Amino acid sequence: MSGTGSIAEVGAPSARSRALAVLRVRSRALAAVLLPAALAVVLVSARMTGRLAGDPWPAVTLVVCAVAALVLLAGGIFGAVVLRAGPAVTPTVPLSEAAAPDLYRLVRDLADRMDVPAPSAIALTPDCDSWLEDRTHPAHRRSAISTGPESEPGAAPVLVIGSPFLWWMRVAELRAVLAPVVAGTGPSAHPDIADARGFVRGLDAAVDVGGRRGLGWIAPPARLLLRLCRTDAAEMERGVAAAASDRAQGVDYGLRIVAQEQVGLAYAGWDRLLTRVALPAWRMGRWPAHLDAGVVSALTELSRRDRLADGFTSRLGERPACDLLEQPGAIDEATSLLAARLFHGGPAEAGPDWSPVDWTAYPEEVVDRKWRTEAARLHTALDALAVPTGPPTATPAPDPTHPAEPLPAHGPNGSRAPTSPTGPTGPVGVTTGAGGPTAYASASTSASARAASTASGRRPSVPAAPSVPTGAPTPSAAVPAAGFPSPAGDAFDGPTLERVLGHLTDPGGDCLAAEALAGRLSGDLAREEHAAGNRAGSGKATGADTVPLFPLQPPRSGRDLLADHVTALVCCAAVDSAGAGPGLDWLDGPVLLVGGERRSDLAPRVLSLVEDGDPGPLRDWLAELGVRPDKPIRLV
Prior knowledge:
The protein is of the alpha+beta class and 636 residues long.
């Protein structure tokens, strides 16, 4: 298919025939709307000529005319909605010709060689994909989504390029990958295919408008028409793709095979970079400002580790495609912020609680802060459960002649708390019932404030523990913060590993304590994320900006959260007392460095504690590194 709209390639005749099938659905819908009006015209004409005199024709004519008027009114409203509803536009970073003259020159050269119209503009997306997107709909101009030449009627579609391709691929590889995409502008110029695509996009937009603007009756017929033309529309796009691929056969065909291998590698590395490296930073209110530069390091590391990727790093000596940009650093920062919005739901603009972070500062500002925040959250959850600080003591056997009164729990200030109505009490602050242990003592004020301020990025002063008179009873929940007196000297008021190990150690094998703590952590984290979303939605960012369009991970289970928090606590202890440090692995994200070497043997030992209640492997690991489980851990 050429720029003039002629059909010549393999697959193009099929695409045009399928486009005509889609347009026939539109014609039949229009005929269905006009049918009552045509019948009304026939009846009125017959009445006027005297062919339908007498009863019941006057009443029949009146009813048919009323029905025809209602159907025409509904059809007119439906057609106006389909024509005016703006199709969805993928959020992208616009790339002007002044910002990338070499890239525009490369794309135009491709279009000239394949005899197709050149794309009207170029935009970048933080994903490993490339496509053409039509932005000529009048609704886009009215809403200022597109204001450049790409929004003019009859303009060629916009070429959207995945930003990781520009940083990882070489110029020749990018050219080979873009050739079949650019070739798709030829089918877009054919009037039948363009009309069919516009009709389908209008129906899709009408479904969305019907749900958002109170026009609920519009959505069902729009969905019906979409179902009727779904198969033909899909086959039309397959035919267009086949025609574009056939047109691009003569452009760097041999290099396209190698370039497709790089596409697969980019998918794998980009996914690991987002889920393992970027996501922890996003959850901390920070966004890596140069994700595309980081993907080069991640894919280089993947090439080094993967035997199938041997030899890929040798190509790094060739000119990278990002050299086609005038200011690659600024473009990288813009696409990194867009990636955070799309995949995490962050605000559309940087702010005090949503600031960028460089890769050099990532270990200290993200990894260490992540560990401290999770340690504080775990500390607060233990306080909320009112876990005793010492090992559990044996409970004397009850005297059947003198039933024992249930032992009450105590609040943060030693006040008496009501006993749980669900069942008898077990250890102080924990009730045992059919659903396992449940907390009914509130968290201490100092621990809650410290955890909340740590999660928000502030570094408040840690309040000192109040003194306890000599000989006075010390309820477990009344012990401030971590459940132990504040040590003297330069020590910090924080949790200890020994407290967590004692709580999760499960001689009986039922792991009820772990279940209770995991449930508490899940609830606390859900409340924090909800509060963070409300703060983002109340600022400049709109509510839609706080919801990820493409979430990276499903919600984590309580046990997974507990394992993450225990791991963070262990890492904090290793940093504070064993000379370890936070680090960044390009494929695995936050890691613990001991003597400059990554320790990857911690996870199975934490799982042994969390899943089985066995602290032995973790205690051996701590002893090997010289970590003291009883030493307080800094939280901020």
